Amino acid sequence: MKSLRRLILIFAVGLAWPLGYLGVQAYRSLDAEEAATFGFFAEALFDAMQASAAELIRREEARPVDAYAGPAASALSGLPVEDYIRGYFQNDPDGGFQTPHRSSAPAAPRELASRLAELEEANRVFNRKRADGTDRVRAETAGTVSDEKRRDPARFSEKYLDLSRSQRSKSYLGEKDSRVQTVTPEQAFNLSGVEKKQVPLQPAPAAGAPERERRKAEAPAAIAREPAVSASTADRTAEAGTPGTEAELQAEVAPFQSVFIDPARVFVFRRILIEGRMYRQGFVLQLDLFLSHLAHTHFSPQPMAGFAHLRLRAVDQGREMRTNEAGASADRPRISLSRTFPPPFGFVQAALACNDIPPSAGRGTLNLALAVLAGVVVLGLLAIYHSTGKILDFSDRQSRFVSAVTHELKTPLTNIRMYIEMLEQGMARDPEREQEYFRILQSEGARLTRLITNVLELAKLEKKHRRPNLQKGGFAEVLADVEDLMQTALQQAGFRLKIENTLREPFRYDREIMVQVLINLIENSLKFGRSSPVKEITLRLSEAGDHVGIEVADTGPGIPAGDLKKVFTDFYRADNAVTSAAGGTGIGLALVRRFVALLGGRIAAANNTGTGCTIRIDLPR
């Protein structure tokens, strides 16, 4: 058995390696699938945020060049609807300031005055940045960055779609290149009209000259170095600005770009070049409100917010200016994705992290399949071990049976030869002694016959060649046969057979089989009870409903508790001192069990309260 256990262990280890590798690879594939799914929807979230920002830029690109002055400015005269847009203004070539927000707008005078002051301050800061050459955000390259914990979802999506074109289109929000458009003389007049460039908070004392002088003093020398306009060009612009003139002008409109006014605000603007004069016009963005708008509009209502963490940052040259966080915590993210928005929102960086990605639908199936597979393998190995153990045990018992049968056959044959020789040599001095020798010879012959019969009957039952001959009777003839056949053996062993028969109705049984069954049970009691102080065997018959109960009780040493269910197994003999001294082949009780099963009955063994054991047989009527 030790070598069998060793082989089973080697086989189990050898089988565990490929199964373990298969399981690990399957879980890795599920991890990659879950990460790719998370990455796919993270990209969709980032795309939705970018689309929102791009829609804002496209709306501003559609505005006419004179949206900040003249009749067209009426559309922007009120304060912006979006709370994250502080207001609109235009920066003139000389650093001057124009805004479409008028005092006639539907807003409180105090609020409007505060907002106009804020925009004028933003214009002054922008003028300084123009002079320093820092009038635009130099953001990181737009794209998606992933850490080492992430399986790249691009490989997942590229199996189905070619995303190269859509990815190129995301390199800029809105128009990527400058465009040239035709403007009317009236639009040019509205854009550069001198009398419309002043929007004082209080009425100006003169025709705007002091204010213009102050702005010129504030404008740095770098602004003065912008392309100068010749007198003839100025004249043409003035003439073109006269109502009724038919001439048209060409304006070059650059894409939108952005510049930080301060850590909390960004100026998003476009450049308009007309007749050599550069105008910057756009809107001031409140960063914390803008980031909060993106998070609450596109992320917080989604189921993803329940398990993922979104972090939006506004970054200027590597410095973090503003941050907005939403969703679940992610202190130890299993996967993290980030994206820097394309210009003009290149200052916005979005990062999505997750500790526990929602499991794939296939994970439960895989867990169940692996559990079932492991259970089948373990049960299979246990079955192999158990079956092989039974085969080895049966082989061992069969070997011992052959040895025991040889011994059991040899004993009566030796006795028969010995008493025959004694009779031949005339050692029987009187007829009584001679008759005793003949009785011993007859008993040993019957014992030998019963042993050979048991072996033959067991072989027939094993091959299912034995058929019962059921006849109805009162069982008295069976009891008489048993008493007659076992009388000599009982007398020699000093045992007394006690019969208790309470049967009142006949039942169906096979006479020959029942005689053989009872003889085997009595012989078993004789064999193991030779050294008992009380030598008595009781045979009881009783009625139990639709069954007949037959009990054989003795006063011997009993059966060890662990062997009560095993004694009916083929060739089984309990391994103790009593069994070794008594001898036997191990087929007597096994043959009884097979005979009882052939008759449709049940058999069981139990130790008595005092000494000995009782074997009970229940047969159907």
Major sheet size, sense and barrel closure: 7 strands, antiparallel
Number of helices in the DSSP assignment? 15
Domain module count: 2
Integer-rounded radius of gyration? 55 Å
Structure description:
There is one protein chain. The protein is an alpha+beta fold. The protein has 2 domains: 5-354, no CATH class; 458-620, Histidine kinase-like ATPase, C-terminal domain (Heat Shock Protein 90, 2-Layer Sandwich), CATH 3.30.565. Helices cover 47% and strands 20% of the residues. It has 15 helices and 19 strands. It has helices at residues 2-61, 109-132, 153-158, 164-169, 185-192, 209-218, 221-224, 231-240, 287-298, 361-424, 431-462, 476-493, 511-528, 577-582, 588-598, and strands at residues 85-91, 97-98, 143-146, 179-183, 249-253, 257-262, 265-274, 277-286, 308-316, 319-327, 335-340, 348-354, 471-473, 496-501, 507-509, 536-544, 547-554, 602-607, 613-620. The strands form 4 sheets. Strands 1, 2, 4, 5, 6, 7 and 8 form a 7-stranded antiparallel sheet that branches. Strands 3-11-12-9-10 form a 5-stranded antiparallel sheet, with helices on one face. A hairpin with a 2-residue loop joins strand 6 (257-262) and strand 7 (265-274). Helix 1 packs antiparallel against helix 10 and helix 13 (511-528) packs antiparallel against helix 15. The radius of gyration is 55 Å and the shape is rod-shaped.
